[in-house]
Design a protein that fits this description.
By secondary structure, the protein is mainly alpha-helical. It is about 25% helix and about 5% strand. Strands 2-4-3 form a three-stranded mixed β-sheet. The longest helix is centred in the last third of the chain and has 32 residues. The N and C termini lie far apart (about 100 Å).
């Protein structure tokens, strides 16, 4: 794959919409980002050049008074009365609304999980931005349900904005990787891009790659669960990809994308990994690309994660691999294309009985201030960005084209015969005069004629 084929593809004119809360950057999408520049940015992230960030909520809110009051509405700037930027019309301190509708699916932590009713276990009132600064009309809660597309989209928005601020470039845009090659090799897994395999240990990244010493975190999920503790960001080893022995597995094809985009329903009951003829489930990869459920088959997004294997193989560790970003940018591009083609109403998203975290009005975990799934169920251009890519339209089979052409010719011939018949009829009738003309009289029976 040529280096320039790892494209940015994301851009627009929506910068004013992300100033207040770091939601998402917008940038020109007319040219590819330099692979070296992309690598250096990611190296900055991995090399510890960013200051440590250990807080889920703003530090100014983590006082005894605020925690007791369950309120996180700090002032903007130095003026104490400028709560949430209210004096500038930038926001208000408002009650947090959460979705109380029932959900479905396996969930055994009712009333014991801080993510339930997010974020009301911590705060009941938070800043709600308005005007140009409004966040984009925006969990285990991120897979196996409708929120798969919106959660990952919002994650990319925040990441892109953070990278823009890190490098001081408001025009920076995340690249995407068009993984629909149908091949059995990763064409961005090169030393010039995201790292080739090492010769002595193909599960590790080549020493010639800037990612050869890329450390991963939060990988030991079973250990955390056993000790009932949270991941603290300690390095747990090197990034791995393991394609050894998987040569029979191939990446998705353009036909798979065509099939997925042709599905009419955004999602279908039970709004889980066993939904059928669901665009979301096909894109996530639990259905075949054409929407047919087959528990033995993975497609699209899931297939790519499985193909990469190693660190990318499991949901809790996959984001450690830089490939995660470009993979999900392209997944979001497919979602955006479906939104533009299908133009679904908001009712296409279930209000209730989706798995926890996936109902339409549920606040996505752990984003703060709270943002609902519904607020991200829009086309990308409504959120201020776009993708520089043309995804394939469904091809019409050759026999269908031939049949339509023949039928069109037959209809045209019938039309010609009808016109000729009518003209002949007019010609034969011309010159004939009726022997007697009759018309109705308006005189009454009792009147004289």
């Amino acid at each position: 794959m040529k280096p320039q084929e790892l494209k940015s593809g994301r851009g627009g004119e929506g910068q004013d919409r992300i100033r207040e809360w770091k939601a998402r950057g917008s940038s020109p999408a007319d040219k590819a980002m330099s692979p070296l520049g992309w690598g250096l940015v990611l190296c900055c992230l991995g090399g510890g050049l960013l200051p440590g960030a250990w807080a889920q909520f703003p530090r100014v809110c983590m006082t005894v008074d605020n925690l007791m009051a369950k309120e996180c509405c700090p002032p903007l700037g130095l003026e104490p009365a400028n709560i949430c930027g209210s004096q500038e019309g930038r926001g208000q301190c408002m009650e947090v609304e959460t979705d109380a509708r029932p959900w479905s699916g396996p969930y055994v932590l009712r009333n014991r999980d801080d993510r339930e009713g997010w974020p009301r276990k911590f705060f009941h009132r938070t800043c709600r931005c308005t005007g140009p600064g409004r966040p984009y009309k925006a969990i285990d809660f991120s897979h196996q349900g409708p929120a798969f597309v919106t959660w990952h989209r919002y994650h990319l928005l925040w990441l892109e904005r953070d990278l823009q601020q890190l490098i001081g470039n408001e025009s920076f845009a995340l690249p995407y990787w068009n993984f629909a090659t149908g091949r059995n090799d990763c064409d961005v897994c090169t030393d010039q891009l995201l790292g080739a395999a090492r010769q002595d240990d193909p599960t590790l990244i080549s020493e010639n790659s800037r990612f050869s010493n890329w450390e991963i975190v939060c990988d030991s999920l079973d250990d955390y669960n056993r000790r009932v503790t949270l991941c603290n960001g300690t390095y747990e080893g090197l990034l791995r990809r393991n394609q050894v022995g998987l040569n029979s597995e191939k990446l998705p094809t353009l036909k798979d994308i065509q099939d997925c985009l042709s599905l009419k329903k955004f999602d279908s009951p039970p709004f889980f990994q066993n939904s059928t003829f669901s665009f979301r489930n096909a894109l996530e990869g639990f259905d075949k690309a054409n929407g047919i459920l087959d528990s033995q088959v993975m497609s699209l997004h899931n297939l790519v994660h499985s193909f990469l294997n190693g660190t990318s193989a499991l949901p809790h560790s996959a984001a450690n691999d830089p490939v995660f970003v470009v993979l999900h940018s392209f997944t979001d591009a497919i979602f955006d294309e479906w939104m533009k083609r299908s133009n679904p109403s908001v009712d296409a998203w279930p209000q209730e009985l989706a798995p926890i975290g996936h109902n339409r009005m549920y606040n996505m975990v752990p984003f703060f201030p709270p943002v609902t799934n519904e607020e991200l169920f829009l086309t990308a251009d409504q959120l201020g960005y776009s993708y520089a890519i043309d995804l394939p339209v469904e091809e019409t089979p050759a026999w269908t084209t031939t049949l339509l052409a023949v039928m069109g010719m037959l209809v045209a011939l019938v039309g010609v015969f009808v016109v000729l018949f009518f003209l002949q009829y007019r010609r034969l009738r011309k010159g004939y005069t009726p022997l007697m003309e009759t018309h109705l009289s308006d005189k009454k029976y009792t009147e004289e004629a």
